[in-house]
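Changelog excerpt

This revision adds worked examples to the README so contributors can see how folded entries look when concatenated. The first example is reproduced verbatim below.
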Amino acid sequence: MKSKEIATLNGFDHRYFNTWLKQSGYPFKTGISGTVTIEESVNIEELVTSFKQHVAEEQDRIETENRMAQQAATQKQYELASMLITSGFSFDGYTITKYSGYISGDDVVEIDRPSQSWFGGVSGNVGDALMQSLVHIRRNALAELKEAALALGCNAVIGVDFDYLTLDPESATSSGGTLYLPFLFGVTANGNAVIIEKDSR
């Protein structure tokens, strides 16, 4: 009996069924055109039951992996949300038990240059655009800083400060002119990853 017929009769995905069949140990033949035919000695009912069991086990495995991944993601979000950061070097009511080293987090934003309008005026304000983006990129840099601390097994960051970078990129055109690219503004959040424990008193 052809595997395609079995798959059709039982509502199986034919390709998935064939893939499983080739590693199942059940004897089969593959024709010149690629058609898979089950050997007559095979109990088809047993074969179908075995495949259904495989599908059920795979679904259970996938559900378990998804559940564990969701739990891990939830735990990670909790740890990131509860992580303490400070520009100072200590936390009231806590003792630093381990210093894990210097870490940083970065983000960058592109801001278009002002352009000249048809009427001779200039449209676009770099300062306004930068101020609107600054909070966003600084928040992203801090989030990356926390990620770096968590990756080291830490639950706090001390000595946090920010470095800012401004780039005015330009490039030569094929005609020998100058192409002025968008401004680049970057921010780096720096700090020291530590492990803290709440004081007993």
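The second example, added in the same revision:
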Amino acid sequence: MLTTLKFVALSVVLLPVAAINAQTKDSTSSSGPVARVYVTRPTHLDAFDVSSSGKLTAVPGSPFSNISLSHLSINKMFLFGASDDGTHIFTYSISSNGAVKKAAETDAFMDCGDEDCYTACGPVGPTQIDHTGVTLYNYQDHCDDTAWTQAFQIEDNGKLKYLNRVPTTEDLAMSSTVILGNNSYAYNFGSSFEQPGTQSFIFKRESDGSLSPVDATMNFPKPEDAGDTFDNDAAAAVDPTNHMVLALYEVDPETGDSNGEYGLFSYTADSHGNLKTTNTLADAPTPELDSEIGTMSISPSAKLLAIGGGQLNTQGFQVFHFNGAGPITKYTGVLHSSETFVEFGWDKSNHLYALSTKGLHIYSATSTSIKEEEGSPISIPEASSLIVRSLN
């Protein structure tokens, strides 16, 4: 499925979190921080203000102890995350200086109606907030052999009001729920050994934030071998409008065997939720990561795409030029190949935040230049989740 390429790892020096304040005393400009970043680790939550030059300063009280979360989501007032108990979504209010305080907790199995759900279902998350910040979606994998996406309305006090849930299907390895950049549709993508080939589940986002299944479709590029179909990695990314990126590889539908054709494809969603790509195998770039793609993210400018191998793959990350509906094009080689990257974030001041299990890398990234900022990376051992909110 993938081609192994040789690459050179960059030399980096990890800085301990305790040293951040000493090294970034002048990190915030007179106009204040341009972004705020939150990072989870097993027993703590780290929070930083980011200056226009990409320097980080710990917010008052950070790191926040006795907070164990994953799958962070954020709006202007609240930070949300899946609890380590596997069943709850916690809400934290965000003060004006970035400090957090627990505000509410929601039992994500409230709609199950069966005590067996607490042992039969997969853990809570990933969570995802819509692009206006009023609805939270929670993905639950393999609950009674079915994957579900739940919709919750975010109330003024941070509590979550249950709206509805929609099923995908059983026995599939599913992507987390992806909300289209224009906020109109939600998507899940799945595959299995028993059913080779990508299966898409498409839902309309109603006016109250609830989800409704729609009869929409997606097309695939022409395979190299007649009769083949395409499977997908478990990651997807959206731009601020109606484009989406998927990593697809060609497979034999009878055996599920890959023939090695693999690439990044840009899709466009129409007003009915249908996904269409005009990209071909010939123009879709092949990632240089020797692993499946576990995480990807498109910049707010819609000019750049970052991809990483995810939790189980020590393969670094890579950045591409994103060109809307047109073919994606190569930008960088593999960066930090000795690290496992788990999540990316961006702010509106051209900063890319690349979180590995060792620490947080901060890059200045535009379509013409990309470089790691002074003082990066920041050492955050066992980091697992990242969320970024622009303040400008």
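Reviewer comment on example two: Residues 1-29 have pLDDT under 50 and may be disordered. Residues 70-128+152-166 form one domain.
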